Amino acid sequence: MQNKQKKNAWIPSYAVFPLLSCVTVNCIVYFGIAKLAGEWKHYDLTLPFDRAVPLVPGFVSVYLGCYLFWIINYILIARQGEEHCIRFATADMMSRLVCCVFFLVLPTTNVRPALEGEGIWVTLLQAVYNMDAPVNLFPSIHCLVSWFCFIGIRGRKSVPKAYRVFSCLFALLVCVSTQVTKQHYIVDVFGGIAIAEITYYIAFHTNIYRLSKKVFDRLYEMFFSRRKSACGKESEV
User: Fold this and answer.
1) What is d(CA 176, CA 181) in angstroms, rounded to the nearest whole number?
2) Which residues belong to any copy of the Inositolphosphotransferase Aur1/Ipt1 domain (predicted)?
3) Radius of gyration over alpha carbons of the chain, in Å?
4) What pLDDT is stored for residue 223 in this prediction?
5) Which residues pair with 109 in a beta bridge?
6) Can you spell out the DSSP letters for 170-181?
7) pLDDT of residue 3
8) Strand runs (DSSP E) across the chain, as ranges?
9) Mean pLDDT (whole number) for 191-195
């Protein structure tokens, strides 16, 4: 059996395919459904609370900055061990399939405010509005992924407590940013967090992750075995 974790590797070998699978499933669901359901009837779930929330363009820095947070924490979570990594990836992909169902059954949209004034934050938020159509809102993937970044290291003593606390606070801050940038409504936040918690619980309290593990093991053997074999032949020459 090959060692799937190189010493001091930034991304362990066993984590390559789980992490790539998370990104792939996310992109297929988000962009695929947006294109498929683009012309369908969309529902506006705006509540009085949402109308009362002020627009704060400066929070676009958190809304966009969270992408770096996601990358760092997903790698950190993957480094917690092979089984933890695969269970987490299974939860992540399951959550996107749940999102896919909601995006198809209940397409959502909202009415974004007209931005006034000048400045870097207004310019950036307008760019977000221009690039990201107001679709696939419920549940919020921004909130879902950010919450995964926290619960994936929650209770992990190998991760400094200060960083675990930071991850929780930053995940909550991302949720706030989705509100004050008017990218989502409040039900999107609770929907994203709830789906993250439910799928995480299922992945870590059942054996459903074993199906993912079989696929990842097969991919690992196909890719890394051939690579090592090719390197061996080159060294012989």
Assistant:
1) 9
2) 66-201
3) 20
4) 83
5) 44
6) HHHHHHHHHHHT
7) 55
8) 43-44, 108-109
9) 98
Q: Are 160 and 210 in contact, with CB atoms under 8 Å apart?
A: no
Residue carrying the six token digits 């007209």 = 114
Rounded CA gap, 109 and 43, in Å?
6
Q: Which residues of 69-104 are buried (b: 16+ CB within 10 A; e: fewer)?
A: bbeebbebbbbbbbebbbbbbbbbbbbbebbbebbe
227: which 2 tokens? 């690579």
- pLDDT at position 2 is 47
Average pLDDT over residues 21-33: 97
Three-state DSSP state, 106 = coil
224 Cβ contact partners less than 8 Å away, ≥ 6 residues apart: 2, 13
Mean pLDDT of 193-205: 98
Residue reference for tokens 């299922």: 202
| Separation between Cα atoms, residue 122 and residue 125, nearest integer Å | 5
Long-range contacts of 150-155 (CB under 8 A, 24+ apart): 150/73, 151/196, 151/197, 151/200, 152/73, 152/74, 152/76, 152/77, 152/80, 152/88, 152/200, 153/73, 153/76, 153/77, 153/80
Residue of 85, 63, 67, 65 whose CA lies nearest to 75 = 85
